[in-house]
Design brief:
- By secondary structure, the chain is of the alpha+beta class.
- It is about 25% helix and about 20% strand.
- The protein has helices at about 25-30, 35-40, 75-90, and strands spanning about 10-15, 45-50, 55-60, 65-70.
- Strands 2-1-3-4 form a four-stranded mixed beta sheet, with helices on one face.
- The protein is elongated.
- The relative contact order is 0.21.
Length: about 120
Amino acid sequence: MAKYGTYMLESLIFRYCDIGGSSRGMRVFLKDFSEPFKQANPQLKVEEIEHRFHHPMLIGLYKNGNYWPICVKNLTAEEIAKHIFWLRNSHGRDEDFKIPRLHKVSRNESIQGRWKPQGPTL
């Protein structure tokens, strides 16, 4: 999904191990699907980092300065592709981003009284 006519994902980093078993799906993806993916998404800067003895990671860097790391340990190439397309289509907001909502309004007053930040008055 493009916001304002452009994708928010700016860069995608593939970090994997060349000998580890948990990186097998990442290696298959990079061997078979990386070139068609790069041709289909020319707006992305794609970087491949070989990091021995670590689990594979996808790291999405967004235009708003946020980044989103996803561990793809023991996943197949198709499952990794789903994560990549999710990263591409997301906006890169923080996890704690919440849409502001109105507080609950009740017809009944609280039995304890209204809360005041300075504490109870005696």
